[in-house]
């Protein structure tokens, strides 16, 4: 039996993921977002790259079969399961600045950015090195005519998941998102397991 | 009289841009792309961020009046002139890996990535620190339904330009793009001036 790990609401974690292992990110209650980062465990200057990935995939809608590339154009992760088919790879993790910008009336929160920065610090990954995350379940439609984007509630239902196989030894950062807009105004945990 | 500087075809350069100065990037022949990077001149770990910028602007189509943010959520540049209105901020600079992927039958070229890496090296900016560039004049429509993106010839005509005012002291990297798809299959120079 494989244990499922709980990431409590508005928090984050980091862990090693060996080459060949599969990380399954689960939305246990539905309509929650998990920001995912990946770094080469042997050299953390190699990092997941939205720009490389979108270029090679020729789409902003990544799903089953798509590969997530590093800034060195190497495959870090392959999506091997996806019950949702709607994720975001355009936006950086929410941060205290995001809260001040979008939610001036709410108490500011360090957000996924702050949670990732703390979780990744033991791996010698500095906050400035946090790039655009692969935002599991995040629903960011783009208007093809105007280019305008919106952050809408995720399409994920309780129990939905995305599975990613590591193609190199990785350090993963993963959160249960803290921003009201990305999860329909509620804060919920994220589960994950490694097979 | 302000001198115009020529960036020869398939090459790149880097230079300091003082706070308050305006950089005008000119497409002298039309249908050419210039990849633009910006770093805080006082601390090059602060770098232009597509993810922050798209999040705050709520659009992927940046033009007159939009601000380009750093990874620390500070404004680096403001777009103060734009005769085209179509630029890309999704894709990383073309590189030798891009050429091997998209143009397997052409002689590979180090691309904008290699040109930027060489130009930025004297400023202690490593290749791994090159993020998604603001790709002036690059025409990357996204299908709002499917998410698919295409790289089409730029909409810029000969003499078109975009002007950006520096909101902090910056190091700028700038290229005349090397990838056939981004400029309709031809290679042309880019001009710029600083006012």
UniProtKB/TrEMBL annotation, chains A, B:
PANTHER family: RE64534P. It comes from the Bacteria. InterPro entries: DUF1989. This is Urea carboxylase-associated family protein. Residues 6-171 form the DUF1989 domain. It holds the Pfam family DUF1989.
């Amino acid at each position: 039996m494989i244990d499922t790990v709980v990431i409590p609401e508005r928090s984050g974690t980091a862990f090693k993921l060996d080459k060949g292992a599969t990380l399954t990110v689960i939305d246990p209650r539905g309509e929650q977002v998990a920001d995912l980062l990946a770094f080469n465990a042997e050299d953390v200057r190699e990092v997941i790259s939205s720009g490389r990935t979108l270029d090679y995939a020729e789409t902003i809608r990544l799903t089953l079969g798509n590969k997530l590339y590093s800034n060195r154009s190497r495959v870090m992760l392959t999506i091997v399961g996806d019950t949702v088919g709607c994720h975001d790879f355009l936006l950086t993790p929410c941060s205290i600045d995001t809260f001040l910008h979008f939610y001036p009336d709410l108490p500011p929160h360090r957000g996924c950015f702050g949670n990732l920065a703390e979780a990744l610090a033991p791996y010698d990954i500095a906050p400035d090195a946090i790039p655009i995350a692969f935002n599991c379940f995040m629903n960011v439609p783009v208007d093809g005519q105007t280019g305008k984007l919106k952050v809408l509630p995720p399409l994920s239902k309780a129990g939905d998941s995305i599975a990613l196989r590591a193609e190199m030894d990785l350090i993963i950062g993963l959160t249960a998102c803290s921003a009201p807009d990305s999860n329909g105004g509620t804060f919920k945990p994220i589960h994950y397991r490694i097979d």
